[in-house]
UniProtKB/TrEMBL annotation:
UniProt record similarity statement: Belongs to the TO family.
Residue stretches spanning the membrane: none
UniProt xrefs under Gene3D superfamilies: Haemolymph juvenile hormone binding protein
SMART domains in UniProt: JHBP
Species for this entry: Frankliniella fusca
Protein name: Circadian clock-controlled protein daywake
Signal peptide residue numbers: 1-19
GO biological process: circadian rhythm
Example of a GO cellular component annotation carried by this entry: extracellular space
Keyword field: Biological rhythms, Signal
Pfam family, one: JHBP
Amino acid sequence: MKSSVFVAALALVATAATAAIVKREVRLPEYFPTACARNAPDLNECIRRNMQFVVPLFAKGEKLFDMEPIEPIAVSDVRVHLRREPFDFHAVARNSKVHGASGVKVRAASAALTDNSLDMSLDITIPTMFIEGEFKIEGKIGSFPFAGRGPWNVTITDLEANWHLIGETVDKQGEKYMQIKRFIPTYRVGGMKANAENLVEGAPELTNLAMNLINQYWEPVLTAMMPATRSELERHLKRMASSVFDSVPYKQLFPVA
């Protein structure tokens, strides 16, 4: 089921944004797998394999690149306004944490790399993402008004994504670095289940009824919830990616055999 959801959950190393000031040049650490030669016959499989190796490591942060951890990702505020039968409500989620980015599975990669350009597509899956935080909500379901506040969590399953990246090299301090010009994501989500306490303040039976309806109609709820969450995820993940691309010259990331 298509849904305009995560970026990322999630462009990770591939979704680099170039910073205005280049950091000191950094050589790839010893634990990195062998760099993929951009003219190698097995380039696509090499990229898939290397991405699968480094993403879980990068999710924990990397001091060499001044990279912050993304497991979990902190999301300060998510505001949702959903008006679609049977829902009409406003909600604010605060102090949320997103878990699961380190569980990404890189299923396939396809790339065309030249001395000055990059055109890459990555197919990824994340089996489970778990979001937790505090909420405040007010509105109605059908003709039934409700309001409440308390803890909440959402489990998203079988997230699939395709990330298409287009980049060009830029010269900085006598070296070429890759600058991503376009990032085109598409997403598909298999399912969602939400839980909340005190959704209908002081009425646990009505809270359970409301949660059952939200889980039954999860697609419009998720679609309304994700724009703010996706924006925050992209910001964190692009920062992680740019910390590598801004530090390591293109010829080190993708040398010529």
